[in-house]
User: Fold this.
Amino acid sequence: MAAKPTMLTAEGLKNLEEELAELKNVKRKEIAEKIKVARSYGDLSENSEYDDAKNEQAIMEARIATIESILKTAQIIDESETSNDKVHLTSVVTIETVGTDRQMTYKIVGSGSNETNPAQGKISDESPVGKALMDRCVGDVVEVETPGGVKAFKILEISK
Assistant:
C-alpha cells in the first residue's frame, strides 16, 4: 500500500528541510558530545546525565525519521494554480462565528505537514474547522462540532 502523500506549501518544505539539516548537522554532534562527557563520569548504571543524553538522542532520532518520512511523500502545492472561488489547501479564509462579530482568519495547510499552528492562524485541512471549510465558497455557512458544542461559521473571504 502506497503512503498517503503529505501536502506541503513551499514554505513548509523549506522549514522541514532546514529543521532536518539542523538536527543532522548540529544537534547530533551536540548530543554525541553530551554522551561522551557523561560516559567519562564512570558507572553508567547510576549516571543520570548519560540517561538524559541517550533519551534526548532517541527523541531527536525519532524526529529525524518523522521528517524524512514526510519528505519522502511530500507533494508541493503550486499556489499559482489555485483560485479564490473555493477553499482549498493554502487558502487564507476569513470566517465569522454566526451570531457574533467574532472573526478569525486561517490559512489551510496540509495535515501531517507539521505546518499546523492555530496560534499562528494555520489549521489543518483535516481539523474539524478545516475539513468543514474545504471546497466551500464565500457566503457559505458551515457547522462544526467543537469541544464547546456545535458552532456555525460563515465564510467572509477567501484569498491566497
About this structure: The first strand starts at residue 6 and ends at 8.
